[in-house]
Each structure stands twice: as structure tokens, then as C-alpha cells.
Amino acid sequence: MPAEGDVAALWPWCIDIARRRRQGLRPVDADLPLSWSPTQGYALQHGWDHEARALFALLKPLLDRRGDDADWTVGQLGQSLDGCIATHCGDSCFVNGPEGLVHLHRLRALCDAVIVGASTVCLDDPQLTTRRVPGDNATRVVLDPSLRVPATSRVFTDGLAPTLLVCDAAHRTRAETRLGAAHVIALPRHPALGDRLSLPEVVGALRERGLRLLFVEGGGVTVSQFVHQRCLDRLHLIVAPVVIGAGQPGLQVRRSDAMGDALRPPARTFALGGDVLWDLDLSPAQRPVSN
User: I want to staple 185 with a disulfide (CB 3.0 to 4.6 A). Which of 79, 166, 244, 285 is the partner?
Assistant: First the structure.
């Protein structure tokens, strides 16, 4: 291992772990500066600095996904102290600091697919690539039941990564004409879900295409729906020391009438510059049983 043992030295090994998982290779080789146990997952060897150990601890639940455990979904949402992701006018540049953006790109690089809602694409026209860190681009997935995202959006035209469009089955023909059948997943909306897509069905359709480790990037409505429909195993909620006031809401989950009914997942905290990342365990074993 390089003597410096810092984040710059650790990150290539994280990328190697992701590559091995996708290709079905052995977890580690003898020359890797970390060890693997079928029961404990990955562990760092000695010699890493504090920042590298903190990054490894944050990413370890994701890095450990292999075999039958590779079907896993992580979400990320950045918001203010008062729970806003943007001002009431839609200005979100920038709620969180640059360290949060780097973390966002790291999650893109380690996962098979990055998922966003239609509003995020319409407002931001994002690329959803790994420009801030080394690593492969994930498949981009746009949830657009009503086909309101412009066909000229960069995710559909820049050719930097594969892109899938998930739409209402009623719009299948129009979507396939626009993008080609191979790039469209058409599913029915459900009245019982407020005429929304069933996210377990979306997740299942993506995994049928070999996209097993999923990253839900935004926006606030999409991440909240993944929590509400119990489709997130982990949520990285990044809170910035700023108060926006009457802005666009961030995480919104089911209402609790009593504190005993509130969602209280196991949590860890990590410093991201001036922000705090809450790592929330939402795996099925941690979810309350519905009455």
C-alpha cells in the first residue's frame, strides 16, 4: 500500500471492488490493502489515515454487496436545517457544500444505475456522470410517467452513458418512438399509490436488466417515494448548516400521530466539510411492521 494511505489511495480500491462485483470476480486479491470475510465483508489493513478510514466506514455497507446481497438500493438527499432542498423559487445552487457533490459522484461510480425523477431532469438538465471522481458512469434511469421530460435533455442525447426511461404503460408507443424500445420500461400507474408508479415494480424491472445495485439521487419527491414505498435499504441524508425558510421540501415520509410510531432508523453521522451526513439504515429488518 502507498505510504500516504489517504483517500486518494483508497478510492481506486473502492472502484476495483465495484468492478469485481459487476464481473463476478473474487472479492480480493493478495495484493489488495484490505481483507474480505464472507461474514464480515471488507476490512481495511493498517496504515490508513483518519479521512480514509471514515470514507471506508461510510461506504462499507455498499462495498460489501455481493452475490445474493447485491440487490440493494441506496438513496441520497441534500437539504437545509429546516428540511428544504431549494428556495421557494427553485434555487438550489448550492444547498450543500462541494464535499457533498464529490460524495454524490462516488455513489454514481459504485452503483449500477442512478435514478432521478422527471422534475430533476426538467429543472437541472443533469448529466448524472462521474465527472468529479475516477470511475465508470452508471446507467441513467429517468422516472417520467407522463413523458414530460424533453427529448433534447442531455441524458438522452450526450451519449456519455446508457439511459433508460420509465414511463406509464399508456405512453409506451410514444416513448419507444422517441428513444427506441431497448431504452424504455413501461409500467402501469396505480390508483392506490396516488396514480404513481409502483417502485417495487420499477426496481424489479431494473434488476431484470442486470442493474442490481441502485442509487436514487433525487429529487425530494422521488427519494421520499422510495422511502414511503419501502424500496430503500439505505439513505444518505446530507444536512447543511443553512436555514432557507418556506422553501421546497426535502424528505417527506408518512405522518406519525405519536412519537412511538415515528420512523426511527439506526443511524450514523459523518462530517462532509461543513455539512453532516446521516447514514440511515432502512433495510427491511429495520422497518416497522404495518398494522
Answer: 166
For the stretch 94-151, pLDDT in tens is 889 999 999 999 999 999 999 999 999 998 999 999 999 999 999 999 999 999 999 9
Tell me: do 60 and 118 sit in the same domain. no
Q: What does the pLDDT look like over 140-157, one tens digit per residue?
A: 999 999 999 999 999 999
In a 10 Å sphere around its CB, with 0-12 CB exposed, 13-18 middle and 19+ buried, how is residue 155 labelled?
buried
Residue 23: how many CB atoms within 10 A of its CB?
Answer: 7
* Nearest Cα to Cα of residue 111 among 85, 132, 141: 141
**Distance between CA atoms of 82 and 26, rounded to whole angstroms?**
45
- Alpha-carbon distance values, 91 to 31, 54, 87, 94 (Å): 47, 31, 5, 8
286 DSSP assignment: G
The length of the chain in residues reads 291
- The answer on 140 and 102 residing in a single domain is yes
Q: pTM score, two decimals?
A: 0.93
Neighbours of 261 (CB within 10 A): 12
**92 inside domain:** yes
Residue ending a domain, among 70, 90, 112, is: 70
Selection from 197, 73, 95 nearest residue 142 by Cα: 197
